[in-house]
Design brief:
53% helix; 123 residues; mainly alpha; two-stranded antiparallel ribbon
């Protein structure tokens, strides 16, 4: 009887060194480079439009589900709006306040950078 011979499997790892300092394995030289997906301006616009359409559908569902009217008093103004519209207005107002604070911070940082740039060029 003869023993079945196992097929020979080639290893891509280098042999282990005696002190354990073998270099890390390298990819084979014949391996094709990975190709990234094509990304263009139009594909970015298309993706943004799709995301915007999905967001609008979500907002539309939100408005339809929260259609009952509420009474809101703010700085002497008395409004009767649907709950969804009132919540959306509050979210937009919060986003505008946050954008104003962010713009002020960016402007402040630009002024600091400009001032530091003048100091380093004068010295």
């Amino acid at each position: 009887m003869t023993d079945p011979v196992a097929p020979h499997v080639a290893s891509t790892l280098p042999p282990a060194s005696a002190n354990g300092s073998a270099p890390p394995p390298r990819p084979p030289a014949h391996a094709a480079p990975r190709r990234r997906g094509m990304s263009t301006r139009i594909s970015g616009v298309r993706t943004a439009l799709i995301a915007g359409a999905v967001a609008l559908v979500v907002v539309l569902i939100f408005v339809i589900q929260n259609a009952h009217a509420v009474s809101i008093s703010f700085f002497g103004a008395h409004l009767h709006l649907s709950l969804a519209v009132a919540l959306l207005l509050a979210a937009v107002a919060g986003a505008l306040v946050m954008a104003a604070a962010g713009t002020a911070r960016i402007t402040e940082l630009r002024q600091i950078m400009r001032r530091d740039g003048r100091k380093s060029s004068d010295g």
